[in-house]
Specification:
elongated; 4 domains; mainly alpha; 2 strands; about 425 residues; 15 helices
């Protein structure tokens, strides 16, 4: 009976899958996808025939015993069952176990849970920037300017349309220019020194002092403009590193899912439900939007996403998957081979970063520990002998402390940039 029951359950599951694939087949126009789904349906039908044969064989070997006769219930007990509950005859209710109570409470909470839609509204700063520079930004985009910036914005998932981001970039540069005027005016009359009170009035003439500080007006806006221009590219590289860390394990997951012979787009939907790959989820959501909202077939959507993907490895996966679907290839085999390649590259990257960490440790010992000690000895010898620059003991201490602090900060920032994502 157990074997018959298992065979029947498998037939039921296979029938559900056949119905689901048949419904999908009605809505698909692409010939390659129709061939893949049709072949999957034929495989499921042959598998269903096999389980049907197992079911019939199991039923033939079942011997049904005669039902046992129920014992007669005494008349007194029957009369007690038929009597209504009174004060003297109280029927006790069965107690519900605590675990079942907790399960019921959780089910009620899930039913009462409502989904709130989150709407992102632009900030006041973005609105002012758009009103000021939007038309000018659109004119530049129509003339073909900022092409690489537009591509980086799409790949970085910053949530800005190109015209709005360029407007914010110009407006931020304008604000920085106004702020740089005040900074220049401040340094026109005041100067910073190393000894207390650290801020003193300038004794030079205004003309000579202006020649020394006028560059601030151009330096600060230029730095701000360059930072805002290259920020999407830096964000895209950061997202690429995160995606490359998640991709090998997600590909293994996709390989195991594809063995169930489901429709290829459902693989990405299942990956989204796991919520284990936060950076890949954004890319897969964009892919499913191409299919469900914009109406592209899966192969065209994969080609589009490969062109706009922030990660080269993810783009190669999209292109390979599109080629496999278009040619009617073996999806489980494709995902399996690609997962092996990605895991091998992942191990190589880890080994490379571990070797680089050893090199950085040697550099740190020589630059941050040994070099300041040698420099301090040289400064003390110059002070004692009176040769070269003669600094006081307090100034030498201040220079060494500041130098070591700045080098440590720069070294930590460098390591933070160079370390692999996800560590």
């Amino acid at each position: 009976m157990e074997k018959a029951k298992e065979s029947f359950e498998m037939q039921k599951k296979i029938a559900d899958q056949i119905n689901e694939l048949s419904e999908d087949l009605k809505n698909i126009v692409n010939g390659a996808e129709r061939r893949i789904i049709s072949s999957q349906i034929q495989k499921l039908k042959s598998l269903m025939k096999k389980y049907g044969q197992d079911f019939s064989d199991a039923v033939e070997n079942v011997s049904v015993p005669k039902p046992l006769t129920q014992p007669k219930i005494p008349e007194k007990i029957q009369e007690q069952k038929q009597m209504p509950a009174s004060k003297g005859n109280v029927i006790k209710k069965e107690k519900v176990p605590e675990l079942e109570k907790l399960a019921l409470k959780r089910m009620k909470k899930k039913e009462a849970k409502t989904i709130k839609k989150k709407e992102k509204k632009p900030s006041l700063y973005v609105k002012i920037a758009s009103r000021t520079f939007y038309n000018y930004s659109m004119n530049l985009l129509n003339r073909g300017k900022f092409y690489s910036l537009r591509r980086d914005l799409i790949r970085a998932n910053l949530g800005f349309v190109p015209a709005t981001y360029i407007s914010v970039m110009f407006f931020t540069t304008l604000v920085a220019f106004i702020a740089s005027i005040f900074v220049m005016l401040f340094f026109l009359f005041f100067s910073l020194v190393a000894s207390p009170p650290f801020l003193v009035s300038v004794e030079q003439s205004l003309g000579s002092r202006f020649l020394m500080v006028f560059w601030i007006i151009f330096a600060i806006p230029a730095i701000v403009f360059l930072f805002t221009y290259f920020y999407p590219s830096m964000e895209k590289k950061s997202i690429e590193g995160r995606i490359n860390q998640e991709l090998p394990f997600a590909t293994i997951h996709m390989s195991s899912i594809s063995n169930s012979m489901i429709e290829p787009s459902k693989i990405f939907q299942i990956i989204l439900t796991t919520e284990e790959y936060p950076f890949l989820e954004k890319e897969f959501t964009k892919l499913l939007n191409e299919v469900n909202i914009y109406g592209y077939d899966l192969v065209t959507a994969l080609r589009n996403m490969a062109f706009n993907s922030p990660s080269r490895k993810l783009g190669d996966l999209y292109n390979g998957l599109a080629t496999t679907i278009n040619s009617g290839g073996d999806l489980p085999g494709f995902f399996d081979k690609r997962a092996q390649t990605l895991l091998f590259e992942h191990r190589l990257e880890r080994e490379k970063h571990s070797k680089a960490a050893e090199t950085f440790m040697d550099i740190y010992i020589s630059v941050v520990i040994a070099a300041p000690m040698i420099l301090m000895l040289l400064l003390m010898m110059m002070r004692v002998s009176g040769l070269g620059i003669s600094l006081s003991t307090g100034m030498i201490t201040l220079v060494m402390v500041l130098g070591v602090s700045v080098m440590n900060v720069l070294f930590i920032a460098f390591l933070q940039i160079k370390q692999p994502e996800g560590t």
